[in-house]
Amino acid sequence: MLKRISSNSRSTEVGSAMTRMTKAYNNANLTTDSYLDELMTGLSAENNLLTKAVDRSKAESQLEEKDDVRDDKIRSLFQFVKGQTVHPDPAIRAAAETLMVVFDKYGLSMVDDSYGTETTLVKSLLDELGEDSLQASITAVAGTAELIAQLQAAQDDFEDFRVEYQTEKGKEEKLENATTIKKRMVGTINNQLVVHLRAMSNVDEALYGDFVGAVSTIIAENNEEVKKRRKKPEPAA
Q1: Which of 48, 58, 63, 209 is deepest in the core (most CB within 10 A)?
Q2: What is the pLDDT along the chain (237 residues), one digit of tens a residue?
Q3: Pair (70, 164) in one structural domain
Q4: Are 202 and 212 spatial neighbours (Cβ–Cβ below 8 Å)?
Q5: Where in the sequence is the domain holding 185, given as residue range(s)?
């Protein structure tokens, strides 16, 4: 029997299942069923919206990843220079201590600030590290200049992507998110498509059989994947 698609399916899972159903429908000779055609056309359009919404979610994750890279560069620079403050060479130790005066003004806690605040602080730190008065100390502590350059690159990469992300988000701020679209699609599939196909397969098995079988397989495979995923133990904290 044709089953309902699991409400616990992820947005990407529903999207994938709907794409396969659409292909199966396009291969079936059911265009005389105007109700079914309207249903599939509507679900296909919803699936396109879902794909775009998922892409927006991915962009947000990418922004977080780029911030994580920047945070790592901040920590590496701070920890490296701090370690050099106990260097056995007095000249290197003194240069590292001079740089730590600057670093201590900002502190590692900046990595926990909002994107905007952290960006401002990192920019200020980099500007200060670019002052002529600190170049001798940076040169004296070998490796510092390279770490500063890496932080600058991470800062530029984050900001470039953030501007792009915010521009697109501004255009799409009134659009629905993936979860909302997915829930609506699941409702349409279960309450309209599945119900209609169950009824029509009883009326005309010869005409609807292949498509109903394809949809049944797609939903069954999707639900099995959801079932397996939900049985997996949660990773340790």
Answers
A1: 63
A2: 899 999 999 899 999 999 999 999 999 989 899 999 999 999 999 999 999 888 877 777 788 899 999 999 999 999 999 999 999 999 999 999 999 999 999 999 999 888 899 999 999 999 999 999 999 999 999 999 999 999 999 999 999 999 887 776 766 556 678 888 999 999 999 999 999 999 999 999 999 999 999 999 999 999 999 998 877 554 443
A3: yes
A4: no
A5: 11-56+176-229
CB 2 within 8 A of CB 198: yes
Q: Is residue 2 part of a domain?
A: no
8 A C-beta contact, residue 142 and residue 91: no
CA distances 204 to 33, 34, 199, 201, Å, are 12, 15, 9, 5
DSSP classification of residue 193: I
User: Other C-beta atoms within 10 Å of 180: how many?
Assistant: 14
Q: In this structure, are 52 and 65 located in the same domain?
A: no
Query: Are 98 and 136 in the same domain?
Result: yes
Domain count, the chain: 2
- Within a domain: 4: no
- Residue 36 domain-assigned? yes
Rg (CA), the chain: 28
**What distance in Å separates the CA atoms of residue 210 and residue 135, rounded to the nearest whole number?**
74
How far apart are the C-alpha atoms of 53 and 174, rounded to whole Å?
A: 12
Whether 114 is covered by a domain: the verdict is yes
